[in-house]
Amino acid sequence: MAGFPVFGRSAMSLRLVLAAAICVAAALPAAAQGLTPDALWRLWQAGGGVTLQAGEAREDGGALLLEDVVLSVGDGGDAARIALDTLRLSPEGEAVRIVPSDTASLTVPGPRAPVTGTIAGLAGGEVLARRTGDQVAYSLALPRMTAALEGLGGPAADRPGAAVLTVDDLDATLTPGADGVLAVTLDAARVAADATSGADRSSYRLGYDDVSGRFTGTPAALSAVAGGGALAATRPVEIEVTRGPGRLEATMPDGATPETLRIESDEAGISLTAQDGRAAYEGRIGATRIGVQGGVPSGALSLSLGGARIATDLPLLPADDPQDASLSFEIDALMPGPQVWALFDPQGALPRDPARLVLDLSGDVMLAEPLAASGTRAGPPRALSLTIERFEFGALGAQVTGQGAFAFAGTPGPGQPLGRPTGEARVEATGVNALLNTLSQTGILPDGPALGARMALGFFARAGETPDSLVSEFRIGEDGNILLNGNVAGQLPAP
């Protein structure tokens, strides 16, 4: 979805590929006593939230040929549609072979305007329908499929973008179940795309190897995820996508000198589960190398990281009582490239330790509106409490850790965006004074700012129990007193 951070803009394209496959298979919903072309055609006509219409159905050399086929998933204006010139059904042992026309047109409803496109390469592979217990399962194998898509973007996309998506060596299975629920798995040797942003006409080129995906839910649920819409109105949905090595190149116009961003990563994955009024999301990426050309003083910059992860567990629907929420974020082994070190530390005085950041938050919230798949809401949520379960940051030889818990009461306002806080936090740091000394001695940090930093440390922190360690304890009482290391440091305004 638009808000999935690991795959970025490509996540929507991958979900739209799933949407196309699901739309094709969604008209294949139930079990049959005998799986013949005629029985399969009658099965599709049974509907069940999905309809398949054909201008003509006739026998063709022992097969059933459907012409002017329109597949609709959903109701009225919210329905996703695929149109094909022909669909040929022929017996294949105990299975039915399905041969579509090579191209199809796709329309998927979006938050502002529909996503439209043309899918090609459908006739070059193999689609089989088989009975599996009391269900009919479908297997699809395509050497190459392309999709030209228009209208990509979430709810805030004033100028939707476009993309040409290519999928190589696609293998998928689709099993329709009860109440319109579909189980879909897919594997692809490679997924590639060339895309253009609608907002600033930036261009993107990406390629992912060894892509695997799993989806369980209704077509409406997938459409909500792909379009950034509200998940709360859909039935339960589970999505999991993993990939191997990936490459992304983005060119962003900046006058006469475009800025080019290149990202290469070893592997990545996303997962989303939405059910019982809640959504759990996790995104992760492995070892990654990032480079920027143009628009920077040195002409080129680079950095690398060992991996990153983000996970959330959030309510989807408003409720009368507070609901718990959590956020976990981690960046491991972040290391600037040689161009960055040459700019800020040409003498090599600073430690070259990789940076690391860990942040775990939890709390209680009140939702004013249903949560959307993109992470946006029509009305802002209100946080009633916030717990800093874990905070760790390390870089340049210094380490900072912290924990804390706060509650918020009253009405949010100027200076108190979450309401009137009460609670406490503790922060510990090591190596900060040594880092300031190195920055000052090498001239990286001028004397004035260095003196100001030491004065700030003296005000906010006290010496710890070990050499070059600092401790800061912060507390806000119910009376509004602000205590810093046991001393009154201020007073909150009266409520």
For the structure shown, list the relevant keywords:
495 residues, 28-stranded antiparallel β-sheet, 28 strands, 6 helices, mainly beta
Q: What Rg is obtained from the alpha carbons, in whole angstroms?
A: 28 Å
Total beta strand runs = 28
Percent of sequence in beta strands? over 45%
Quaternary state of this entry equals: single chain
Structural class: mainly beta
Shape: elongated
**How many DSSP H or I helices?**
6
List unreliable stretches of 5+ residues.
Answer: 1-17, 22-33, 373-378
- Biggest sheet, in brief? 28 strands, antiparallel
How would you state the average pLDDT, rounded?
A: 82
Please bin the fraction of helical residues: 10-25%
Question: Would you mind describing this structure in some detail?
Answer:
The radius of gyration is 28 Å and the shape is elongated. It is 14% helix and 53% strand. The chain has helices at residues 9-26, 37-45, 219-227, 338-344, 432-441, 447-460; strands at 50-60, 63-73, 80-92, 95-100, 103-108, 115-120, 126-132, 135-152, 161-176, 182-196, 203-217, 237-243, 246-252, 259-265, 268-275, 278-285, 288-293, 300-305, 307-315, 323-336, 355-366, 382-395, 398-409, 420-430, 462-463, 469-476, 481-484, 487-491. It is mostly beta strands and 495 residues long. The chain has a domain at 9-347. α1 (9-26) runs antiparallel to α3 (219-227). InterPro entries: DUF2125.
